[in-house]
């Protein structure tokens, strides 16, 4: 996913054909796998969408990169990432799936 290693199961929740600025996705990141580091820009210069994102850790643990910082995440943690900052998350556990509820807001 986004150039990261391994496998990530993605479940996207849609609202039929109704337009919605908020989008909801569940990620199940396999042990050793990751969502690659990526950036969403306000002008969508790289075609990934102009999104603010909020990651909520449901289960498992990992390392989240935001900007130039990396932080260990665990269940109950919530991380907001505004536009123009690199972000990504990696499952560092050897056997446990990292489950993340991701909300992204179209700008």
Furnish the topology, listing elements before pairings.
Elements: E1 8-13, E2 22-29, E3 34-38, E4 51-59, E5 62-66, E6 69-73, E7 78-81, E8 87-91, E9 98-106
Antiparallel strand pairs: 1-2, 2-9, 3-8, 4-7, 4-9, 5-6, 5-8
Quick overview:
With 107 residues, this protein is mostly beta strands.
Description:
This protein has 107 residues and is an all-beta fold. The chain has one domain (8-16, 32-94, 102-106): Sandwich (Jelly Rolls), CATH 2.60.120. The protein is 0% helix and 52% strand. The protein has no helices and nine strands. The strands form two sheets. A five-stranded antiparallel sheet has the order 1-2-9-4-7, with no helix packed on it. Strands 3-8-5-6 form a four-stranded antiparallel sheet, with no helix packed on it. The two termini are 22 Å apart.
By DSSP (H or I, 4+ residues per run), the number of helices equals 0
* Poorly predicted regions: none
Q: Which homologous superfamily in CATH is the superfamily? A: Jelly Rolls
CATH architecture classification name: Sandwich
- Rg (C-alpha, Å): 13 Å
Order of helices and strands: EEEEEEEEE
Large-scale geometry = globular
Helix content: under 10%
Class from helix and strand fractions: mainly beta
Keywords, please?
Jelly Rolls, mainly beta, 107 residues, single chain
């Amino acid at each position: 996913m986004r150039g990261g290693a391994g496998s990530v199961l993605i479940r996207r929740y849609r609202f039929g054909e109704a337009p919605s600025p908020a989008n909801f996705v569940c990620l199940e990141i396999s042990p050793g796998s990751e969502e690659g580091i990526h950036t969403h820009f306000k002008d969508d210069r790289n075609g990934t969408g102009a999104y603010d994102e909020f990651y909520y850790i449901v289960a498992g643990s990992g390392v989240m990169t935001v900007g130039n910082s990396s932080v260990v995440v665990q269940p109950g943690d919530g991380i907001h990432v505004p536009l123009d900052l690199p972000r990504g998350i990696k499952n560092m556990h050897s056997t446990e799936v990292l489950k993340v509820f991701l909300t992204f807001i179209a700008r």
